[in-house]
Amino acid sequence: MATLITGGAGFIGSHLANRLASGADSVIVLDNFDAYYDPRLKRANVAAFDPSILVVEGDVRDELLIERLFRQHEITRVAHLAAMSGVRNSVQEGRLYADVNTSGSVTLMDAARRHNVQMFVQASTSSVYGNANQIPFQESYPSDYPLAPYPASKRAVEMFAHSYHHLFGLNITVLRFFNVYGPKGRPDMMPLKAIDAILHDKPITLYDGGDLKRDWTYVDDTVQGVIAALDRPMGFRIINLGYGAPASLLEFMQIYENLIGKKAIIRSEPAPLTEPRITYCDNTLARTLLGFDPQVTLAQGLAHTWNWYRSEYGIDLR
Ligand SMILES: NC(=O)c1ccc[n+]([C@@H]2O[C@H](COP(=O)([O-])OP(=O)(O)OC[C@H]3O[C@@H](n4cnc5c(N)ncnc54)[C@H](O)[C@@H]3O)[C@@H](O)[C@H]2O)c1
């Protein structure tokens, strides 16, 4: 039996693949090494994999390839993480995000239901809550007013997921991730951009003077939640997966300044229309249904990230 991880060469997917490699099921990673950020980082993730992991280079929109994968391997579980990420990048690329994130996910769900997959985990995002006016976000809060094509494409997938469960009985758990960060993180996201800016004395832009708040979730905690979801078929569920303690971007930068021992050069810009004021996870459902119990505080997680960065890039500050 095998677990298929799409997007497994990427940030969260590669952490998940490494964690699952020691389990009873074999692990297959499908990724097209997309160029949204430097594909060499994804190749390096894959090069460091446990040799038992099978890596297939290909696109989730490729129906023939997907069909072949399901025929050749006894895939019983799918963690579907492949996506075009990046809220701001999606602004000019609506069609691409609809194609990869929505259509690609439906291609995979369709194969999964035809091949009697036992469990399908679909990665979604806290961005579906848009500018929700109640905090912390509960799964029942309105999520139909996304601020950009990226969350719109993910919200559409959530609805397809329900229809595939309803019609075909596919077990699907949709996980709404909240601002995931950690070692080998995405270079387009603040946790690595901030280190780079502070180290190299480059100005860094914070929206609204760093006032916006984000609920940062350490990657090991997220992966623990994904594995728990893979292990527990529950019909159809949408579940928030986040730490549950938002911090302002200014507080976030101060933690890094203390770790690195240098001040950041901060520029303020008005927040663009794509940015909600806050993301704040109510993770009660994840705690109840998945035994989710996030362990890593923001200060600890940024320290792990900084330590990883130092050893990865040979930074010696003495
Ligand atoms: N990192 C976060 O904070 C965060 C927050 C919310 C949701 N998510 C979701 O979690 C998932 C993983 O995110 P990540 O941060 O690891 O991003 P990532 O970009 O590092 O990983 C996504 C992977 O999908 C691959 N991919 C893209 N298009 C593909 C296609 N057509 N076919 C096959 N593979 C393709 C990419 O090459 C990449 O390796 C995504 O679905 C993302 O939307 C992430």
Along the chain, the helix and strand elements come as EHEHEHEHEHEEHEEEHEEHEHH
Strand neighbour order, sheet with most strands:
3-2-1-4-5-6-11
Named once each, the bound ligands are: nicotinamide-adenine-dinucleotide
Q: Report the biggest beta sheet as strand number plus sense, adding barrel if it closes.
A: 7 strands, parallel
Measured by DSSP, the beta-strand proportion falls in 15-25%
CATH architecture of the largest domain: 3-Layer(aba) Sandwich
CATH C-level name of the largest domain: Alpha Beta
Oligomer: single chain
Shape: globular
The overall average pLDDT, rounded, is 97
Give the N-terminus to C-terminus distance in angstroms: 50 Å
- Could you list the spans in which at least 5 consecutive residues all have pLDDT below 50? none
Give the structural class.
alpha/beta
Number of helices in the DSSP assignment: 10
CATH topology of the largest domain, which one?
Rossmann fold
Domains (count): 2
Radius of gyration: 19 Å
